[in-house]
Design brief:
12 helices, globular, alpha+beta, 750 residues, 43 strands, six-stranded antiparallel beta sheet
Length: 750
């Protein structure tokens, strides 16, 4: 037995070492700067600085150095564009089909060497893909995009907000209750709710967790009961999910209060009377005995509650007159909430904080996939003859009685299923994969239940495949005035005739955001309260297969959880959430690759390059000038000087700016027209310093850096630092061993 135990310990240690080495190897591959050696010439590439990201095309620039064998180092910059494929599961992105649009060596005028260096760089970079950390790309995009301008128009009218100090559950019915028969049974059920509500002999029964309730009225008066008809009990046992209750719910002796609503509503609960504690460094208090985000501003005596990414305020929790607060109108102290405090995660909903900016940038990154034209299929079910309704102020009609989003545009029928566009000449098909995304969908307003399809894109296509992607807007996550919010806030009328087709909702399920899991639920009690086989989950929370939180819904509720050590345990929840919510990975047909294809990884530049033994502290400005940041934080320009023999070389023109020639010239021209706008780097030679030999390059820095350039470089440095921080944080995550759901009626943080 002792030998077996010893062997097990050795095996476990070996596995841990192997895992650690694998993680270390992956980290090394993504490390910057990178070094490539070719025929004795060493090229060092510094981390890219990004300039724009549209569709799936990423443009940027990077500083570099070239050291020919036996010669001094020459610094330069190159501009590139590439197609971006993403793997949100592994937090990586692949730059494929890299096209170098310009190379510039500031103040270096040796044309022969410029031609040679340019050819080397093009050969060694354009023939490879480049795998990068997604967290570093996101941080770099802060330079490329003015993320404060990323915003949509939404409905922010407050829902009905209920406050309770005892264990309570919000039971949501989507509009007036719809009662229908259960085939083969002697009772009926409420169709338009994800909860288990059945009717027998004028009595209504609700099953939640380990409790049963009874009432004479479908929307009120529910009391705990032990007397439940056997046929209803047996039916519930067969059709309700066999999920274990969380520990707090399992220990409840008293049945929680039921609040049954038919209008958009939310529940805010505390464990007894609210208990307030100060937030360090601010004039704010927060409620400690709750699993909701409740903050009090001492000066104005306002209570602020965060729901679906939106702040609402009121003087009173009990019977408050709740008003929506525009993000930019939050008290200044909200931005001063310490990131490592109990309330630190609300910073994601405070504009201007790094957490809010990171969340906004997540909204710009698509999930990508390669769709096989032959195998991708879709089936549209209609409840009767197809019926369409014109979307106001557009040339688009949307189907009302289909189980999927179907649009009628210019006599063509388009269906969006799992973020793939299909097209047909008839509403009944046959449906084929579309390689065209109608421009008219850009006009669909948030008042329409079809609003989310405007966030599904087609990037490119071949006779065999179509390259597609979708932004978080497809799963109803939006940027609003510097923050991320869930849902449009509008109530969409569901369809019901013979079948019930629900529409996406914003309110009723305590949706909240955090950087680890994205959007998650909190119901007031555990996930055991929701879901049964008769109810179509699809529609309530967006596309089929998507649930805020973990797969098959409801595996976690509140993000902090109020358990000691929570942050460490939940650290890799983002990985699980991204994986299970990637619609392409869940699709049963038609997806050749979801994320980054394996064959593209094989052509990864990281396999050829090695980590450079120098700091990642060299940058280029938008004009191609090179700078180094020293340990004291000062910027030092790097200048190359060499006798003039002609003009620097850039790519030959094809008549269209930025367009690459169809065939590469066999010899490099002595001069290459610039493909960048007039604001690009100057190619005029600089007079040779009298004190330098004619054959030796100089790297003597100038001490002059303009305030505008310094500001630009500082922003690049901050973005790079933030990206490294997020990358290192994501690498240190470990898979959680348990999941938490929001405790009944709230639970103490302490």
């Amino acid at each position: 037995m002792r030998k077996i135990l010893l062997a097990a310990i050795v095996l476990l240690s070996s596995l841990q070492i192997a895992t650690s080495q694998k993680k270390e190897n992956e980290t090394t591959k993504l490390q910057w700067p990178k070094e490539i050696e070719k025929n004795g010439t060493v090229v060092v590439l510094y981390q890219p600085q990004l300039e724009s990201f549209k569709g799936n095309i990423l443009k940027g620039r990077m500083a570099l150095s070239v050291t020919p064998k036996g010669e001094d180092i020459i610094f330069g910059a190159l501009w590139f564009k590439a197609r971006l494929a993403t793997d949100l599961d592994k937090r990586t992105a692949l730059l494929e089909k890299i096209d170098i649009t310009k190379i510039h060596f500031p103040n270096f005028t040796d044309t022969a060497r410029i031609v040679r260096f340019t050819g080397l760089l093009e050969k060694e970079i354009e023939s490879w893909n480049l795998l990068m950390s997604l967290d570093r790309i996101l941080a770099g995009l802060k330079e490329a995009e003015d993320i404060k301008k990323i915003s949509v128009t939404l409905n922010n009218k407050p829902p009905d907000i209920y406050f309770r100090t005892e264990p309570s559950v919000l039971i949501t019915i989507d509009g007036d209750p719809i009662i229908d028969e259960v085939k083969g049974e002697k009772f009926e059920y409420v169709v338009n709710t994800p909860f288990f509500i059945v009717k027998k002999k004028k009595k209504y029964f609700i099953k939640g967790g380990k409790f049963w309730y009874i009432s004479d009225n479908v929307t009120q008066g529910y009391e705990h009961t032990a007397k439940v008809p056997n046929d209803i009990k047996e039916f519930a046992q067969k059709n309700l999910p066999e999920n274990k209750l969380d520990s707090a719910s399992a220990k409840l002796d008293k049945a929680p209060e039921l609040i049954v609503v038919t209008k958009p509503s939310e529940l805010v609960a505390t464990d007894g009377k609210p208990e307030y504690a100060p937030i360090e460094g601010t004039k704010l208090l927060y409620v400690t005995n709750t699993s909701d985000d409740i903050v009090m501003e001492i000066g104005g005596q306002y209570n602020y509650v965060l729901l679906a990414g939106r702040w609402f305020r009121s003087k009173s929790l009990e019977d408050g007159d709740w008003k929506f607060v525009e993000p930019e109108e939050l008290p200044e102290d909200f931005a001063k909430i310490p990131a490592d405090s109990d309330m630190g995660e609300v910073r994601v909903s405070v504009p201007g904080t790094p957490e809010a900016e990171d969340a906004l940038l997540e909204q710009t990154i698509p999930q990508t996939a390669t769709v096989d034209r032959k195998t991708a299929k879709v089936e549209v079910k209609w409840d009767g003859k197809p019926e369409f309704e014109k979307i106001k102020n557009t040339d688009v009609q949307v189907a009302k009685n289909s189980d999927k989003t179907v649009l009628l545009i210019k006599n063509k029928y388009y269906c969006v299923d799992d973020a793939i566009w299909f097209v047909a000449d008839s509403p009944n098909g046959p449906w084929i994969v579309s390689d065209v995304r109608p421009e008219e969908v850009n006009d669909i307003p948030p008042e329409s239940e079809a609003y989310n399809v405007k966030y599904v894109y087609i990037y490119d296509s071949t006779p065999d495949v179509v390259y597609v992607g979708y932004l978080p807007g497809y799963t109803w996550s939006f940027a609003y005035h510097g923050c991320v919010v869930y849902g449009t806030g509008y109530w969409y009328h569901p369809w019901y005739r013979h079948y019930y087709y629900p529409r996406p909702v914003t309110w009723g399920f305590g949706v909240h955001w955090n950087p680890y899991t994205g959007w998650g639920f909190s119901f007031g009690l555990s996930y055991g309260w929701i879901g049964w086989r008769f109810h179509p989950y699809r529609g309530w929370w967006g596309p089929r297969g998507f649930y805020p939180g973990y797969r098959h819904g409801f595996y976690h509720g509140y993000r902090r959880g109020y358990y000691h050590g929570y942050r460490r345990g939940m650290a890799n929840a983002r990985y699980r959430q991204a994986r299970y919510n990637n619609l392409y990975r869940q699709r049963k047909n038609g997806i050749r690759y979801a994320g980054i294809p394996a064959n593209m990884r094989e052509r990864d530049l990281n396999r050829k390059a090695r980590p450079a033994a120098r700091p990642n502290n060299v940058y280029t400005d938008r004009n191609g000038n090179i700078y180094r940041r020293d340990k004291s934080g000062k910027w030092q320009p790097i200048r190359n000087t060499r006798p003039s023999t002609g003009q620097p070389s850039t790519r030959p023109s094809t008549g269209k700016p930025g367009q690459k020639p169809s065939t590469r010239p066999t010899t490099k021209p002595t001069t290459r027209p610039a493909t960048r706008p007039s604001t690009g780097p100057s190619t005029q030679p600089v007079k040779k310093p009298a004190t330098r030999p004619a054959t030796r390059p100089a790297t003597k820095p100038s001490t002059t850096v303009s305030p505008k350039t310094r500001q630009q470089l500082n922003r690049s440095y901050q973005s790079r630092s933030r990206g490294n921080y997020n990358y290192n944080r994501s690498r240190s995550y470990s898979r959680p061993t348990r999941s938490y759901s929001r405790p009944a009626g709230g639970m103490r943080r302490r």
